[in-house]
Automatic annotation (TrEMBL):
<dbReference type="GO" id="GO:0008483">
    <property type="term" value="F:transaminase activity"/>
</dbReference>
<dbReference type="InterPro" id="IPR015422">
    <property type="entry name" value="PyrdxlP-dep_Trfase_small"/>
</dbReference>
<dbReference type="InterPro" id="IPR004839">
    <property type="entry name" value="Aminotransferase_I/II_large"/>
</dbReference>
<dbReference type="InterPro" id="IPR050596">
    <property type="entry name" value="AspAT/PAT-like"/>
</dbReference>
<feature type="domain" description="Aminotransferase class I/classII large">
    <location>
        <begin position="38"/>
        <end position="390"/>
    </location>
</feature>
<dbReference type="InterPro" id="IPR015421">
    <property type="entry name" value="PyrdxlP-dep_Trfase_major"/>
</dbReference>
<protein>
    <submittedName>
        <fullName>Aminotransferase</fullName>
    </submittedName>
</protein>
<keyword id="KW-0808">Transferase</keyword>
<keyword id="KW-0663">Pyridoxal phosphate</keyword>
<comment type="similarity">
    <text>Belongs to the class-I pyridoxal-phosphate-dependent aminotransferase family.</text>
</comment>
<dbReference type="InterPro" id="IPR015424">
    <property type="entry name" value="PyrdxlP-dep_Trfase"/>
</dbReference>
<keyword id="KW-0032">Aminotransferase</keyword>
<dbReference type="Pfam" id="PF00155">
    <property type="entry name" value="Aminotran_1_2"/>
</dbReference>
Length: 407
């Protein structure tokens, strides 16, 4: 926001950066980061530690002085491990030359947008959406075009592809799809993925697919399909991903981009000028995660499903709450009817009065302001504890509303 820049410097700072909104999730979390009494469901990370074998690989690399500059695009061994991982889980043959290692999923999205956008290029994005992706488009000079999801009273979330296609103009460069979706938990059906692919081929558009949560699909229906399964090596497709979620490596800051064949030198250049690459000892840990971490992913998904079921059942029983049971991710998006004030105000109040940290729906765009998001990548016992605090608060909210109507 422009008011955080001193007057003496404002005219000399980037207008794009000055106009960026503050991150509302961080604004809530900063109020109680060190309060041990709070059940923290605001930020998207699991409560399990990084697996020991991943940490050991990094420590071994440090002891061996693997601390110097490495390949800008990423170690060949890591890119081969990623190729093997995609073959194992999605049965796709993606050569190691089509991967670029990034500083987390955030940097992956940054490089994807830098690679394809010019000044004024439009990107179509279903919303509510991850705020970081929305802001990256603006930072690199693009224009974000929002197409809202349809939220139904029975708890379904749908994306109207016809409305999405209608939003395309001659300035549109790409369509951004996050499936499974943060914050909604929506998952794009395979038939819609194929329809979108065909439309983008016909209109010569890019698909930027954020597939971070592909493993977090429940009731035995995972992993979610990948656009890599239906697109060829020459299609205009960029897939972004991260090590953060699958292996509880949020603080390690490592991710990857999959790009069309022949773009390896472009992405190596982007890495060189953005970050000069990922630390080699972290890359060694990432190799270990890919090669040994499948059982850990399965354990996390089972644990998330148990916590999801606890929270969905408890919140759905409330008359003033509509729960959108997630088809994927580890987020629960729910609507509180008769919300008092903005969702940011409500998130702060829940933190203060119920000692539960939740994310305001408005953090994901104005379309989310009647909603709240909670992360359920936690132990089922902690999910029950959060429910024990949230339910009385939300029931009291309904009681006050009923009393006001009666008066």
């Amino acid at each position: 926001m422009s008011d955080v820049i001193p007057d003496s410097l404002r005219a000399f700072c980037s207008s794009r950066v000055q106009e960026m909104p503050d991150n509302q999730i961080v604004a809530v979390a900063d109020l109680a980061r060190h309060d041990a009494s709070v059940v923290r469901l605001w930020i998207g990370e699991g409560d399990l530690p990084t697996p020991d074998y991943v940490k050991q690989a990094a420590m071994d690399a440090l002891v061996q002085d693997d601390t110097r500059y490495s390949y800008s695009q990423g170690m060949p061994e890591l890119r081969q491990a990623l190729a093997d991982y995609h073959q194992r889980h999605w049965r796709v043959d993606v050569g190691p030359d089509r991967f670029c290692i990034s500083i987390g999923g955030m940097n992956a999205v940054v490089m994807a947008m830098q690679a394809i956008l010019d000044e004024g290029s439009e990107v179509i994005m279903p919303t509510p959406a991850w705020p970081n992706a929305r802001q990256v488009i603006e930072i690199v000079g693009g224009v974000n075009v929002s197409v809202p999801f349809d939220f139904h009273d029975d708890g379904r979330i749908e994306l109207d592809l016809d409305r999405l296609f209608t939003a395309v103009t001659d300035r549109t460069r790409a369509i951004f799809i996050n499936s499974p979706s943060n914050p909604t938990g929506w998952r794009m059906p395979l038939v819609d993925m194929e329809r979108l692919r065909d439309f983008c081929r016909e209109r010569d558009l890019w698909i930027v697919a954020d597939e971070v949560y592909n493993h977090f699909v429940y009731d035995g229906n995972g992993p979610a399909p990948s656009f890599l399964q239906i697109c060829g090596p020459g299609d205009k497709l960029l897939v972004t991903n991260t090590f953060s979620k699958n292996w509880c490596m949020t603080g390690w800051r490592a991710g990857w981009v999959v790009f069309p064949k022949g773009m390896d030198q472009l992405f190596a250049r982007l890495c060189q000028y953005n970050t000069t690459g990922v630390a080699p000892f972290i890359q060694r840990a990432c190799i270990e995660a890919l090669q040994r971490g499948d059982d850990f992913i399965a354990h996390q998904v089972a644990r998330c499903q148990a916590s999801r079921d606890v929270l969905v059942e408890g919140l759905a029983a409330l008359d003033n709450v509509t729960v959108f049971s997630p088809q994927g991710t580890f987020y629960l998006f729910f609507k509180v009817h008769g919300l008092e004030g903005s969702s940011l105000d409500m998130a702060k109040r829940i933190l203060r009065e119920a000692k539960v940290g939740v994310a305001p729906g408005s953090a994901f765009g104005p379309e989310g302001d009647a909603y709240l998001r909670i992360c359920f990548a936690i132990a089922p016992e902690l999910a029950s504890q959060a429910l024990e605090r949230l339910v009385p608060f939300l029931r009291a909210l309904e009681s006050r509303k009923s009393a006001a109507v009666a008066d």
